[in-house]
Design goal:
By secondary structure, the protein is of the alpha+beta class. It has 20 helices and 28 strands. 36% of the residues are buried. The C terminus is likely disordered.
Length: 764
């Protein structure tokens, strides 16, 4: 009997599917099973594909691809459709993919196999039918969706392994799992489940040429299925004793492949018999692919975290040894994306003179290049400071250094610039450099485009301390940076920060500063008297105000919640009301400390008169009579304006408020270098000057002029008093609070002196 007759008798046909040419060769029985005339025929792929149910075609397409990858048989059930879309019969296809290489060297395959009709169960019989497209398929798809979601959410290798161990596959669940990695020419165990501690010892350092299934899978990139112990013993006799003691009866070893590279192997072991049908192999292969991707992502994430931690530890310095009489606290918060390292930094530098320097800065950008430039700039600033240069010289040299880095990158090849133009573009940086004498509290500040420092006084009042400044570093190589000097009194705290602390959350400089000021003033020292952790708590509160849950309820006026790196440094000079340091042995009743501020207005900076007015208003923010505050602001504006207009020197403003709330005394002095004393004038109705003494006599409770060795000091005093209801006390016009400088229509104090002469009228 011929083979063709036997195959026809059992309703089995032969076919050959050539994927390269896109043709299918059928014998007579195969053609009949597909609903075609029962004679041998060669058809295009499209004609044969139209005979299969669309759902089954998608299924067999995946099974064939799996068989090609694994070098196994492709088996599937297919429903045959007629031209009207009716199901004619169900057939079983079994085929073997065979690789073919064309003359051009391209590898393709053809399927050679059989098609056999499956008898459908008749009504009333006990035949069991398990369709391939039934509930099992839907449960498998649901399982794969859940597994993919769980693996995608895993953020570490341990989480990936925990998810893999918890997977319950539909119809069959492995009892033991193991993930193997590759380290050089050796196999290692990344993780396992279903084994006791120490069971992994024989597999920890196994050579890749070992006769072990996982090693062969890594070498070949093909899965290995061992349905029975006999199969294991026959194929891998050398390592069978290692697997025998675990009592499993079926094993599947699948490659973990990412981007065409085999990164390891996954073992699924079963205590029950598993035949590893095409559907089961398809599920295992899909899980292996998802597991490989999840392990790759977790490895990259862990490497980034390790790199980030290393960068932060190397770039963010420790605050160093304790400074006698001073307390320090600092925080650095990156934006949250990328490598978690940006361009902000701070530093504490011991100086040869016995002093120390506080540095805080912000390099433009939030990328890796910003972090790299920040590291170089920080090292340069530290080197210049350690050489003993003054604050202005340190910033001048740092600006020249950063500008030099930008020019050297501009000279790179055109090819490099085309790859990433922004990476090679010049960058600038803002910086604030403070040299501090811990013995006297003297601070010398040089500023390069950075936000001014803020001072919290001993009574809790917070002032933004205006300082002279220059351009950001790196814009102009040779730039001068003037120095501002003031004293940090015992009990006062200075805050240095980058603009991220101010502007994050949709805030601008004004609203962001108001938010921080509320936090600084809300941290009362009396509640935490002599608490050595108060400065650390304050640093945490400042960061929480920007990144904590409450920050979402205090968004600024801008539409977007802009994110930026944050660096903040707090410096406290220990004192009775500081809240840090050693408590006194015999506590006494606290006396409200004096509230004091000082400001220099240079001849070349008349715009700082507006800053002087703001300083006075912030100093008197809780003064009981607002009209007295307006009077003080008006007199300060007139006094400083007259110094700039009628002398050749700068104006030094000193303001001090002493006493208990409701009964304080305010004293403000403005010193200049002119020896000419003021005198009272009688200006006409239309005169625009000459009313300085009249304003002082009318608004101040007391005033006077104190001659000095060089120049004079003009002062006035106001005594705080609560305004009774119905009082008609005369006060200054509201326009006195204008932040503009002297101009037409504003009283400018004394008359102009003769050419070359000093001011003749008191600044008022």
């Amino acid at each position: 009997m011929r083979t063709e007759d036997v195959l026809a008798a059992i309703a089995t046909g032969l076919w050959r599917w050539d994927n390269a040419s896109g043709t299918v060769t059928l014998d007579g029985e195969a053609a009949r099973l597909l609903g075609l005339p029962a004679e041998p025929v060669v058809l295009p792929e499209v004609a044969v594909r139209s005979r299969f149910h669309p759902v089954d075609w998608n299924e067999i397409n995946g099974i064939v691809n799996l068989a090609v990858a694994e070098g196994t048989l492709a088996e599937a059930r297919l429903r045959i459709m007629d031209e009207d879309g009716r199901v004619l019969r169900t057939v079983r296809s079994r085929s073997k993919p065979v690789e073919n290489r064309d003359p051009a060297g391209r590898v393709d395959y053809e399927l050679i196999g059989t098609i056999q009709e499956i008898a459908e169960p008749q009504p009333g019989t006990t035949a069991v039918h398990t369709p391939i497209t039934g509930d099992w398929r839907r449960s498998r798809e649901a399982f794969l969706l859940d597994a993919g979601r769980a693996l995608a959410e895993a953020r570490s290798t341990a989480e990936v392994l925990r998810v893999a161990a918890s997977l319950s596959m539909p119809g069959f669940s492995p009892d033991g799992l193991a993930v193997f990695g590759v380290a050089g020419e050796r196999l290692s165990i990344i993780g396992h489940h279903g084994h006791d501690v120490g069971d992994e010892a024989p597999f920890v350092d196994m050579r890749l040429d070992t006769d072990y299934p996982a090693a062969e899978v890594v070498r070949t990139g093909r899965a290995i299925y061992l349905p029975t112990p006999e199969d294991y013993k026959r194929r891998f006799p050398a390592t069978w004793p290692l697997a025998q003691r675990f009592g499993r009866v079926s094993w599947a070893f699948l490659p973990l492949i990412v981007a065409g590279r085999t990164m390891g192997a996954w073992m699924a072991a079963f205590k029950h018999q598993v035949s590893f049908s095409p559907d089961e192999r398809s599920v295992l292969t899909t899980v292996a692919r998802m597991l490989a991707q999840a392990l790759q992502r977790a490895g990259v994430a862990e490497s980034e975290r390790e790199l980030t931690t290393g960068l932060q530890r190397s770039m963010m310095p420790q605050l160093g040894p304790e400074i006698p009489g001073m307390q320090l606290a600092a925080r650095y918060v990156p934006t949250g994306g990328g490598l978690q390292v940006g361009g902000d930094w701070y530093d504490v530098i011991p100086l040869p003179s016995g002093r120390f320097a506080l540095v805080i800065g912000d390099v433009q950008g939030h990328d890796v290049r910003a972090a790299g430039l920040m590291g170089q700039l920080r090292i340069a600033v530290r080197a210049y400071a350690s050489e003993g240069h003054r604050p202005d010289a340190v910033l001048s040299r740092a600006s020249r250094f950063l500008a030099g880095l930008g020019s050297s990158q501009e000279s790179d090849s055109d090819e490099d610039r085309d790859e990433d133009p922004d990476f090679h573009s010049p960058r600038f940086a803002t910086c604030l450099y403070v040299e501090c004498d811990p013995r006297t509290g003297l601070l010398e500040v040089a500023r390069a485009g950075h936000p001014d420092p803020a001072i919290r006084m001993t009574d809790g009042t917070v002032l933004m301390r205006p300082t002279a400044g220059g351009l950001p570093l790196g814009i102009v190589p040779d730039t001068d940076y003037p120095t501002t000097r003031f004293t940090l009194e015992p009990g006062e705290t200075m805050m240095l920060c980058t603009d991220g602390l101010i502007e994050t959350g949709g805030h601008d400089l004004d609203t962001g500063w108001a938010r921080l000021r509320a936090v600084l003033e809300g941290q009362t020292h009396e509640a935490d008297a002599h608490d050595t952790e108060s400065l650390e708590k304050l640093a945490d509160l400042l960061v929480q105000a920007v990144h904590g849950p409450s920050s979402h309820h205090t968004t600024g006026p801008l539409a977007d919640r802009r994110e930026d790196d944050i660096a903040v440094v707090l410096l406290c000079r220990e004192g009775g009301a500081c809240g840090c340091g050693t408590p006194p042995a015999h506590p006494v009743r606290p006396v409200r400390p004096a509230r004091r501020t000082m400001l220099t207005v240079a001849q070349a900076e008349p715009e700082r008169i507006a800053g002087a007015r703001r300083q006075i208003r912030e100093l008197l923010h809780d003064w009981s009579d607002p009209e007295q505050v307006d009077s003080a602001v008006l007199m300060v504006s007139e006094m400083v304006t007259n110094v700039l207009m009628h002398t050749d020197g700068d104006a030094l403003l000193v303001a001090e408020a002493v006493g208990e709330l409701g009964g304080r005394r305010l004293r403000i002095e403005v010193a200049d270098q002119s020896d000419e004393l003021p005198h009272k004038r009688h200006p006409g109705e239309m005169a625009s000057s000459g009313r300085g003494v009249l304003l002082m006599e009318m608004l101040a409770d007391d005033w006077g002029v104190d001659p000095r060795g060089e120049g004079k000091s003009i002062w006035f005093e106001l005594h705080e008093q609560s305004k009774a209801p119905g009082d008609a006390a005369a006060g200054p016009e509201p326009t006195a609070d204008s932040d503009s400088g002297p101009g037409p229509g504003r009283a400018s104090g004394s008359d102009r002196p003769a050419a070359g002469g000093p001011a003749a009228d008191p600044p008022a």
